[in-house]
Specification:
Strand order of the largest sheet: 3-4-2-1-5-6-7
Shape: globular
Radius of gyration: 22 Å
Largest sheet: 7 strands, mixed
Number of helices: 13
Distance between the termini: 26 Å
Oligomer: single chain
Structural class: alpha/beta
Length: 406
């Protein structure tokens, strides 16, 4: 494979894909594409460069027809030829080029691509509300057929791709989510960092919860843990504006939002600032509910807490985390949480796993993830070099990459 390979990333809409693209851009030339869903996107031809500072990333925004992947819009206004042509023209005659697709809906584009395709799947898309599961499985099958390397971010998604989407297991490399390389500490800390200003007056010890404070959190568990844990403060960092369909869960969140005192909601913070909060907690709590698609994904906030090196308690609502002990402690209910917090309190919130978490965090960065994907893709591309560029025969590729990133 040529050293100047241009990697198209389609698309960089979510924060974790922006982080991944930023890391990729430090290793190789990239073209980062971010669609804007428009009511009349099929007829719009514009492109707009967008430079963001956090993370530092240049993207090309382009219009995409609302409902572009759904019947009947997909049949009436096919998007794939125009989009594939848009990407190819932007390469400015650079050869070779690779396409990283991050959603099953781009399967028609992948099938037209004149070069290697990598499928980087960060969600069990078929389980999202409102999705046509049969359609998604069909698109995943097409993507797995055309891609030379398939990189889901969890073993659960890898198993789904292998069984339901008929992906050749030899193409699969599991690449979990991560944290920024600059969040890795120089040495394991022995105590929490100074708390941000918004936490002033909140007495220690402080247990912290970060992320989207919505329906994927078990609010009944959180309330039970708070009620049973004496002398503990709780800091919640993240947005609370998303609705929760389950009435009991929604009621528990509303109850906690109204409490005040040692329960403090700090509101949403930029992704790049989460590390400051994670480092300041005496202990972290990851109270996920066990439901899809969360259960089958990769817990980005775990890697934030891992880098902070503070003790971590977690529910069993995330399959990926069930195998992470002793880096974290799994709990079942509020009594478990209260008991573990009392044990931590008796040791000054030093659980003896600080150095192990610190060492594990070295491999849990977006830069490591980007290198892993590039290595898997490079092996596959070099194994099938005769098919590139321009053969249109990617769907015949044979497996060439195996493994799981740690």
């Amino acid at each position: 494979m040529k050293a100047n390979m241009l990697w198209h990333i389609l698309d960089t809409g979510s924060i974790w894909l922006k982080e991944f693209a930023c890391a990729m851009g430090t290793l190789a030339p990239t073209a980062n594409w971010c669609p804007e869903i428009r009511n009349f996107g099929h007829w719009e031809k514009w492109e707009r460069s967008d430079v963001i500072a956090n993370p530092p990333l240049e993207m090309t925004r382009f219009p995409l027809q609302r409902g572009y992947a759904r019947f009947p819009i997909a049949q009436l206004f096919p998007f794939e030829k125009a989009l594939a042509g848009r990407l190819q023209r932007s390469a400015a005659r650079r050869e070779p080029t690779a396409l990283i697709c991050t959603a099953p809906f781009y399967a028609p584009v992948a099938e037209l691509w004149q070069g290697p395709v990598i499928y980087y799947l960060t969600d069990l898309t078929k389980k999202y509300a409102g999705m046509n599961a049969k359609q998604i499985v069909g698109l995943d099958r097409r993507m797995c057929r055309v891609a030379c390397a398939v990189c889901p971010n969890s073993t659960r998604i890898a198993e789904y791709l292998s069984t339901e989407a008929a992906c050749d297991p030899g193409k699969l490399t599991v690449i979990p989510n991560a944290t920024r390389a600059q969040n890795i500490l120089d040495h394991p800390p022995t105590e929490p960092a100074e708390a941000p200003a918004e936490m002033a007056g909140l007495p220690r010890p402080i247990v912290g919860v970060i992320g989207n404070l919505a329906g994927n959190m078990d609010w009944l568990l959180i309330r039970d843990a708070i009620d049973k844990s004496e002398g503990i403060s709780w800091a919640f960092v993240g947005p609370t504006d998303m609705g929760i369909p389950d009435r009991e869960q929604a009621g528990a969140r509303s109850d906690l939002l109204s409490r005040g005192g040692r329960v403090r909601f700090l509101g949403p913070k930029p992704y790049g600032e989460l590390c400051r909060y994670a480092r300041s907690f005496d202990a972290a709590f990851m109270p996920y509910r066990k439901h899809e698609p969360t259960y089958s994904g990769s817990a980005t906030r775990f890697y934030e807490h891992l880098a902070a090196c503070r003790p971590i308690l977690s529910s069993r609502g995330f399959h990926e985390l069930l195998s992470k002990e002793p880096l974290l402690k799994l709990v079942n209910d509020g009594e478990d949480v209260a008991r573990e917090l009392q044990l931590l309190k008796s040791t000054g919130f030093r659980d003896g796993v600080e150095e192990l978490r610190w060492r594990a965090s070295q491999d849990g960065t977006w830069l490591v993830r980007a290198r892993t994907l590039m290595a898997a893709a490079t092996r596959a591309i070099e194994g099938q070099a005769s098919e590139y560029p321009g053969s249109g025969a990617q769907g015949k590729n044979r497996p060439a990459c195996i493994g799981v990133a740690q």
